[in-house]
Write a structure and sequence with these properties.
- It comes from Halomonas urumqiensis.
- It holds the Pfam family PHP.
- GO terms for molecular function: 5'-3' DNA exonuclease activity; 5'-3' RNA exonuclease activity.
- This is PHP domain-containing protein.
- The strands form two sheets. Strands 2-3-4-5-6-7-8 form a seven-stranded mixed sheet. Strands 1-9 form a two-stranded parallel sheet.
- It contains ten helices and nine strands.
- The protein has helices at about 35-45, 60-70, 100-125, 135-140, 150-160, 165-175, 190-195, 215-225, 240-255, 315-325, and strands at about 5, 20, 50, 75-85, 85-95, 200-205, 230-235, 255-260, 300.
- Residues about 300-329 have low confidence and may be disordered.
- The protein starts with 5 loop residues before the first strand and ends with a helix.
- Helix 4 packs across helix 5.
- It is globular and about 55 Å long.
- With about 325 residues, it is α/β, with parallel strands linked by helices.
- Strand 2, helix 1 and strand 3 (about 50) form a beta-alpha-beta unit.
- It has two domains: about 15-100 and about 185-325, Metal-dependent hydrolases (TIM Barrel); about 110-175, DNA polymerase, domain 1.
- Helices cover about 40% and strands about 15% of the residues.
Length: about 325
């Protein structure tokens, strides 16, 4: 394979991939400025990356300048918060054409929702003993960016109400807890439509982390695909290999592409840019072989990417074609 080329298929090798399509910076709830995220990616040997801050693209311009200096191929992105059947579902938008169309107003609406949501979370955190919750979360954020649950989690730790962030989520901020405010997010299908309308690729983020049964995860994947979703994160950080293989079967049944990402937020933890479980051998095509992302794949060993006709409906057919091709090798 040529230097810096991405693999055209997942062969089950233990060699680390040089691409990470899910990372965060100080533009949302990450600890490093966008340029420092890019520099860390370079230091860790990555050749391709996406910056996917929550409900914003505010860090993309800085990241693009840094990527040009570092010689890394940067894909603009964002991670949208949505609702599906009472569950908070995140959708990564990989945006080769940037923000346009319905996504422009969608991101504006998300920013407003985040402000209202922060107020509601603050009210609930004050009831459990975090006085001045909004100000303390803002202090943890260190900027005027929209607040997220991790900011309140750090505030709870700083106030001595919980020993660590994990406990903060387990007791107060995780799914179904007092700080889990999701009623303001758009429905899954609406957010997927924004991404597809912008010429992007909609990726279901970390489908293994919601505590869903296999059957309900299948229903989620069905709804996502029906809405125009094109891919899902087959690997997100570190996960059980057998469960990854089972997820691969679910994606293959629905002719979805497979994405990979560390979901990096801060240095010093067990996740770093490019750190994730290896991908088992599978016929599912990597998301970077999707026609809308073909520029990332040049050169890719063994693939001649199709040219996107600009329509949103080519995703499933393109995946089916790639699946057929990959299976024949």
């Amino acid at each position: 394979m040529p230097m810096n080329a991405l693999p055209a298929r997942f062969e089950g090798t233990s060699l680390p991939l040089t691409i990470d399509l899910h990372m965060h910076s100080t533009a949302s709830d990450g600890a490093l400025p966008p340029a420092e995220v890019v520099a860390l990616c370079k230091a860790r040997g990555l050749t391709h990356m996406a910056l996917t801050d929550h409900d914003t693209v505010a860090g993309i311009a800085e990241a693009e300048r840094a990527a040009a200096r570092e010689g890394i191929r940067l894909l603009p992105g964002t991670e949208l918060s949505t609702r599906w059947s009472g569950v908070n579902i995140h959708v990564v938008g990989l945006l080769p054409q940037g923000v346009r169309g319905a996504l422009v107003e969608g991101l504006e609406a998300q920013a407003e929702s985040r402000e209202k949501r922060a107020l509601r979370i603050a009210e609930r955190m004050e009831k459990i003993g975090l006085a001045g919750a909004l100000a303390k979360a803002r202090e943890q954020a260190g900027s005027e960016r929209p607040l997220g649950r991790p900011d309140f989690a750090r505030a709870l730790v700083a106030a001595g109400l919980v020993p660590d962030i994990t406990t903060a989520f387990k007791k107060h901020l995780g799914d179904g807890k007092a700080g889990d405010v999701k009623a303001m997010w758009p429905e899954l299908a609406e957010a997927v439509g924004w991404i597809v309308d912008a010429g992007g690729v909609a990726v279901l983020a970390h489908p293994m982390r919601h505590g869903l049964t296999r059957r309900k995860r299948g229903l989620l994947l069905d709804a996502f695909r029906a809405a125009g979703g094109q891919a899902a994160e087959l690997v997100s950080g570190f996960q059980n290999t057998d469960k990854t293989r089972d997820l691969a079967r679910q994606l293959q049944e629905r002719e979805l592409y497979a994405s990979v990402g560390s979901d990096f937020h801060f240095p010093g933890g067990h996740l770093a840019p490019g750190s994730m479980s290896s991908v088992p051998r599978t016929a599912i095509p990597p998301v970077w072989t999707h026609p809308r992302l073909a520029h990332l794949c040049r050169p890719c060993s063994g693939v001649d990417p199709a040219v996107d006709d600009g329509a949103g409906g080519e995703a499933a057919g393109g995946a089916a074609g790639m699946l057929s091709s990959a299976t024949s090798h």
